[in-house]
Amino acid sequence: MTTEPERRLTREARRTEATSSDDRDLALLFGTSTALFASLVGPAHVLEAANPAFFAAIGGGRRVRTGVPLAELMPELAAQGFIDLLDQVYRSGERHVGRDARVVVGVGGDAREAYFDFTYEARRDAGGNVMGVRVIGVETTQAKHARRLAAEQRALLEQIARQAPLREVLDGMCRSIEELAPEVIVSVLLADPDGRHLRHGAAPSLPDFYNEAIDGIATGEGAGSCGTAAHRRRTVIVSDIATDPLWKDFRDLAGQAGLAACWSTPILARDGDLLGTFAMYHRTPRVPQESDLALARVFADTAALAIERHHAEQARLAADAREKAARDDLAFLLAASTALAGRLDERQTLERLAALCSPVLAPLAAVDVVEAGRVRRVAASAPTEEARDLLARHAPARDAQDDAVLRVLASGLTEVARRTPTGPGPWRELGVTGYVCIPLLDRGRAFGALTLLSTDGHSFDGHRIALAEELARRAASAARNARQYEQRAALARDLQTGLLLPDLPDIPGAQLAAFYHPAGEGLEIGGDFYDVFARGDGSWAFILGDVCGRGARAATTTALVRHTARAVASLLDDPVDVVKAVDKALNERYSQQNNGFVTLVYGHLAPTGDGLAVHLVRAGHTLPLLRDADHRVDAVDASGGLLGIGIPPRLAARRLTLGPGASLLLYTDGLTECRADDTEQYGDVRLAKALAAAPRGSSAADIVRTIAEDVRGFVDGVDMEDDQAALVITAGPPEPGRD
User: Fold this and answer.
1) Domain 344-491 maps to which CATH number in 3.40.190.10, 3.30.2320.30, 3.30.450.40, 2.40.160.20?
2) Which among 132, 217, 327, 681 counts the fewest CB atoms within 10 Å?
3) pLDDT tens track for 221-263
4) CA quadruple 519, 525, 529, 532: dihedral positive or negative?
5) Rounded Cα distance, 219 and 228, in Å
6) Is the pLDDT of residue 28 over 50?
């Protein structure tokens, strides 16, 4: 017969056997799973059973054993609080669930960071009493790292998208990887455009001396892991730097930096061009796992994206800078051309050239020209008056061996040097460090030179030299035009002076005054003319007219009219015959060519007891105006046609007498047809009023002055389009001097 205590022991034994059987089933179930399973028994948490995944997670090796307390098998758990959690579950019987719990597995150099989702639940016997703790979990380290990796990737891509500086992106990438894998030191090197050298990109955890030493290393076989990877265009793995021949030239440097292994992956563009290298260093010799290489490939691709984006942005900025520079250059040259093309003489043009160059192209500028076989400095520009005076006073040497200006004048070629000019000069006082000397050419011959001088902080590049040469070319053209303009204007003035009387003659009983104002700058010879000369019998001839056209042809026609009139005036008593002789001469000259026409007023005058006797002819010209002693003004009506048109003009002479104080005004239509801005012409009426407004007793010179001032006030500074000429004859006692 079985006693009650025996029956109770039997029941407990059966419950224990049943519980152990359940754990054996769980062990079998988890035996081939990646999930972790461990069965602990007793308050000491003795490891009774566990699946291979559990032993692999806790480090394997000497830890693959049962029958020992967990705290003895994994002593690192106590300090992390996991043994306390087991005690709590064992005492209370209540389940504990952990999510993404961080566990440092192992000790010393073998320690690793891991993350787990786990459940601690009580093991009970058949009577419901807690007899141990069952551990079920899954290691989430890779998943967590994947999430962190994805987050870091997103952050880097966002940086790239918002065009963060490349150094910032690469530095952030290195730090992110080092946080994901604390045992790794990351470095990124950037390839030069030619792919022959690697430059420091980012390596926040490497010592500065190491980064400085490898900055600029050449790519090639045997140039460490990175130089070789760049050369081979594929990953290079060096598991032990101390023994690998690729590190022969860098082994001591790596030792100083405490580096023992290096895996380098080339960073390649989409077209295969080398962008740089991505390196992962270790402090101890190590062979990479596939996950390490995958991590390198992922971040090498990210780095490639960042570098390509940076290159594209740099190319855009460079293109924008080139475009802006081109616009600035064009604006500068346009402004310079406008300044040089103004109404300047040659000297002013060259002075403007020097002023345009300094300080835009160089701190100091000077211009020298050849005059009468000698070189003379005509312009200088500098930041201070003292420096300008020093530069202006300097004269080029006489020997081409000692002077850049003479060499450039002889060769016609630009000379550039990064030193002070040869020969004596104020180079030290001005702080000159280099120069550019550019010839000023006229039809291939150098007539001058532009010298630009650099000082500290300034240097000449190809772009600046090309801009200076273009400016010099434009200035040389402007100077040549100014010189030609001056020569033509001087010729025109001389010729015009030769066509006009230098002085009006003294006529007894008469006063004479003339007014002549050429249109514009007087560059072209005008067609207006006048003359007064003696006929040889005590009378005088006067003529005022206008030749159609301008320039040399008008000048020769003017000379023909005046000389013909002078030649025949003493032979013909009738003014009509003199004018007909002029018409005949005009028509006979170049009879096969239309030379335009001429208008004029010609007449004879002679002193009489009661004034001046006037006998005149008008040939298509403006009507003369007569002002009597009472200031009344009337037109002198005399009919007559144009001269030189091949049709004999019908001419009628008119006789009149100028009493004392009376004046006769002859003028060209340049006076009456001038106009100011948006106004009517000056006109005959206004001219008559101006003539009448001259004070009583005015001399011929006073009358001319009054009319000239009224015309100037009317046009108010506007350039006239036609020449203006006037001749005033006033009867009265002759002035002691002439006007």
Assistant:
1) 3.30.450.40
2) 327
3) 989 999 999 999 999 999 999 999 999 999 999 999 999 999 9
4) positive
5) 6
6) no
